[in-house]
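Quiz preparation item.
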């Protein structure tokens, strides 16, 4: 569906993705953003970003094609199941594994692997995210909860919303963090210049992270984070916000040629079982790539 649209004064100042979303209501905003990022939407003959602000007289050339429906298929994917019963699963997601299929990653995800190993998963989140109660970033490894039925899914989601699920992470931060502990409290929203990133913004949702220093090194600090809220990229954005981005985080800090992603690990998960009421607690040691990196660091000497 190719067409050219001339921007009128009433649409001046609108973001390109918002304008297209209002115009093409049959398509999801993420689908339209993906088309913009692939260069299939031009403004005055040029490729622009999703957040491009329109001006009166601009000419938008679009070639909108329907998105191909995605469906998650069972596949052999490498991950460990830490615990399983009739209601839920606790998995150890490896670094580099995407949680569920999307337009940029249609298969080879944790969900594809779950479908191959588990005969029943909750259907609340549809065919692309069966059983997924919460997520971890692609390059964040560690413990995740998965629901096997709708009862446990609803209850676990409610517990997370009410802050009854305790999640702790270990992160290696760049530089020396001098405070022994503290609270980072901000508001987070999508970055206006890059829709794949998040930023501290008064227009966002409240995000609260508690931290405690575990060990200091000459140019890095091992920190434990406890999440009060669970916003997307929360620890990564908060770490960068205080001037100590997570080591290896190429999005909010600097990448490291010796690493495949950020050194952030979901090592502890604590909650009450949704059906039995039993207190459940799981902890994992640091993965080898994380521990090996730390072992090469020089301890901080005052």
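Solution:
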């Amino acid at each position: 569906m190719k067409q050219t649209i001339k921007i009128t004064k009433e649409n001046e100042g609108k973001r390109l993705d918002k304008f297209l979303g209002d115009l093409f209501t049959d398509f999801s905003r993420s689908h339209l953003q993906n088309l913009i990022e692939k260069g299939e939407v031009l403004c005055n003959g040029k490729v622009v970003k999703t957040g491009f602000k329109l001006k009166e007289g601009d000419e938008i050339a679009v070639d909108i094609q329907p998105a191909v429906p995605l469906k998650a298929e069972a596949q052999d994917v490498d991950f460990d199941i830490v615990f399983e019963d009739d209601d839920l699963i606790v998995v150890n997601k490896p670094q580099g594994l995407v949680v569920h299929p999307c337009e940029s990653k249609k298969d080879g995800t944790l969900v594809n692997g779950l479908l191959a190993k588990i005969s029943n998963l909750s259907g609340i989140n549809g065919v692309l995210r069966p059983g997924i109660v919460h997520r971890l970033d692609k390059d964040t490894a560690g413990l995740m909860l998965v629901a096997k039925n709708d009862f446990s899914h609803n209850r676990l989601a409610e517990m997370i919303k009410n802050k009854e699920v305790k999640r702790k992470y270990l992160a290696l931060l760049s530089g020396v963090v001098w405070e022994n502990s503290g609270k980072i409290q901000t508001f987070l929203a999508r970055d206006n210049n890059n829709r794949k990133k998040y930023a501290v913004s008064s227009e966002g949702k409240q995000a609260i992270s508690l931290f405690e220093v575990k060990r200091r090194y000459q140019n890095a600090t091992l920190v434990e984070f406890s999440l009060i809220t669970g916003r997307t990229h929360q620890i990564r954005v908060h770490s960068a916000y205080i001037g100590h981005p997570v080591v290896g985080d190429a999005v909010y800090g600097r990448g490291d040629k010796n690493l495949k992603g950020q050194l952030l690990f979901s090592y502890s998960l604590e909650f009450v079982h949704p059906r039995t009421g039993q207190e459940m607690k799981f902890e994992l040691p640091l993965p080898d790539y994380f521990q090996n990196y730390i072992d090469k660091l020089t301890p901080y000497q005052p």
